[in-house]
Amino acid sequence: MSTDKKELKSWFSEGLKPTQEQFWEWIDSYYHKNESLSIHTVNGLENALLIKANKDASDFSPEDIESWKRILGVNDIPQNIATNDIRQQDGELISGTSYTKEQSDAKYYKKVDMGYFNSNYVLLADGTPKAAGDLGKNIANSSLTSVAGAGLTLGADWTVNTSGLKYSITGLNDVTNDATFTTFLSQNPAGIIGRSNGVKPFLNIPTIMSEAEKTAWKTSMNGGWTTNAMNVGLIYPSVVPKATNSNNLTFITLIGSNLNLNPSNFSIKIINSSGVVTETINNSRVTLVNANMISFSFNTQTYELGDYTIRLWNGVADYNTSVKLTVFDNSSANEVDISRNVWSRVTIGNLPFDNELVKTPNELNIGYDADLFNAAGQNDNVVLLAYYMQSFLSATDDFVIEGVITKVGTNYNPFGGAIGFGITTSPNDTLTSEKNSGAVTVGNNSAHYAYFTTGGYGGVNVGINDNMKFIISKKGNFATTSIYKDDGSFSVATNIIDNNQPTPVRFKIFATSFQYTTNATLGVKISSIRKL
User: Fold this and answer.
1) φ, ψ dihedrals at 277, nearest 5°
2) DSSP of 240-290, one letter per residue?
3) Tens digit of each residue's pLDDT (9 = 90 or more) over 23-78
4) CB 453 within 8 Å of CB 459
5) β-strand partners of 404
6) C-alpha torsion 150→156→162→167, nearest 10
7) Distance spanning both ends of the chain, measured CA to CA
8) Nearest to 285 by CA among 122, 484, 149, 92
């Protein structure tokens, strides 16, 4: 029960003494602290809490949920809303979809060097951070350091794709004379650049050069002298005697192609049958005649008997001759007895000739008047007369004929006659052929002869009383005839002989005419004829 506050106050006015019933009624008009209040004691509370709500809203019906959402003004939470990592009371970690501020600062917010204009980093598309100050940097405006992100990073792979554009580096130091610069920049097919000592690229150059480029390069490297493949077709004489003392020099001539060697960079070596170098010819004894001929002298005293080849070096490459040089022993060769020799003489047009000064089996000295023959209506430069030795040799023999020219004498102004030497297999020579390019062909025999002149017309040019030596050698079907003076001048001719038949072989000397030549003399002496 409850009593109105105004009435309660009237019972306790000044001077009044409340009764027991009034005091109790005053007490009953209020709730004691230990009493529980009923929901009905609070005005309107029962209506406001018609819906009972637990802490986890587990008793909410779907209708209740929608009603609460409408009253609270909230809609459904979007599926892509960001959530943070949280840890539950039981310690279990639930991963969210976004970083907290602390996490983001720790991962992406970094301090950089003061050299950059701000301390912010930006996140690149691939997720890597980059200092904002580096944006727009390239090799042209970056500092080349070992700090990652500061332009070109040292110690890391790096690629520049020029896309076919021309990139240039100018103003470099000239280090031409600096001996410490010994390496080259080199590049592999993938475009990777490195350093090289140059050996591999240098060795690879010939594989990408044309034949014409190779020849031009080799020629340039050899001082402009040819480096084309050398070839020697003839060695004459091809058979030489073993020298009996150190003063006996043998003169050798090589004929072939591409023999114009560089005078400052060549060598000639004699190679024995075992491939060992027997001698390197002193270059002072070599005459580089022209692109097709080389002549040199050497001494065979210390040589073994047998076959040798000649090795040429042109400054770039070696060449070994396929034709051989044979050294034989004079003492073991079978010397031919020519004591029964009788000289045969032929004159042009059967003109009379009776000026034989000396005529022995092995020696012949004659004098003739060239003008007399020319006056008879003959042209210049034709064979006037010839002498033949008796045949002691056969085309199947290998042999060596050696001799000296004992007398040469002329009275010319200034034209002189040519005197030739050689061998022939023709029994009936006719004197009708002319001297041509350093050789004389007699009749239809096509035999070539070494010769000398007294008027500067090729061959060995001699003066009055000059003495010379000659040697004719034959091995197989190949014969060579050479005339030479001690000063190294020489004349050489070759002859191919059919050595399958025992055809007689004769030694022959002859004289040709030149206009205005008078009172010509010649002399020849056979030193020996040896069958090998």
Assistant:
1) -70, 115
2) EEPPSSTT--EEEEEEEES----TTS-EEEEE-TTS-EEEEPPGGGEEEEE
3) 888 888 887 778 877 777 777 766 666 655 555 666 777 887 777 777 777 777 67
4) yes
5) 469, 525
6) 70
7) 171
8) 484
The CB-based long-range contact list for 61-70 (8 Å cut-off, 24+ gap) reads none
- Number of helices (H) and strands (E), helices first, in the chain? 8, 33
d(CA 519, CA 367): 6
**How far is the C-alpha of 336 from the C-alpha of 366, rounded, in Å?**
24
Q: Cis omega (within 30 of 0) on the bond before 237?
A: yes
d(CA 274, CA 309): 10
Q: In this structure, are residues 478 and 390 in contact, taking their beta carbons and an 8 Å threshold?
A: no
Q: Of the candidates 411, 418, 407, which has an alpha carbon nearest to the alpha carbon of residue 365?
A: 407
Closest CA to 159 of 130, 136, 185, 192: 192
Residues 461 and 468: beta-carbon distance below 8 Å: no
pLDDT digits (tens, 9 = 90+) for 5-14: 888 788 888 8
In a 3-state reduction of DSSP, which class is residue 510? strand
Is 87 buried (19+), middle (13-18) or exposed (0-12) by CB count in 10 A?
exposed
Among 390, 421, 386, smallest CA distance to 405 is for 421
Query: Largest Cα–Cα distance in the chain?
Result: 210
* Residue 151: CB atoms within 10 Å: 16
- pLDDT of amino acid 262: 85
User: What is the mean pLDDT, run by run of 10 residues, along the chain of 532 residues?
Assistant: 80 84 83 77 68 62 78 72 80 81 69 49 70 62 56 65 81 89 87 87 86 79 74 82 87 86 90 95 91 90 93 90 86 86 81 79 80 53 78 90 74 51 70 38 36 46 66 83 69 77 85 59 85 86
Nearest-angstrom CA–CA distance, 270 and 278: 5
CB 341 within 8 A of CB 361: yes
Q: Tens of pLDDT along 465-479?
A: 667 788 888 888 888
CA distance 446 to 524: 23
Give how far the C-alpha of residue 502 lies from the chain's centroid of Cα atoms, to the nearest Å.
54
Q: For residue range 272-298, list pLDDT tens digits in order.
A: 999 999 999 999 999 988 888 898 999
Q: Which residue, among 127, 87, 135, has the nearest Cα to 107 in the 3D structure? A: 127
- Calpha distance 532→524 (Å, rounded): 23
- Give the list of residues 6+ apart from residue 28 with CB closer than 8 angstroms, or none: 1, 2, 3
CA distance 226 to 216: 9
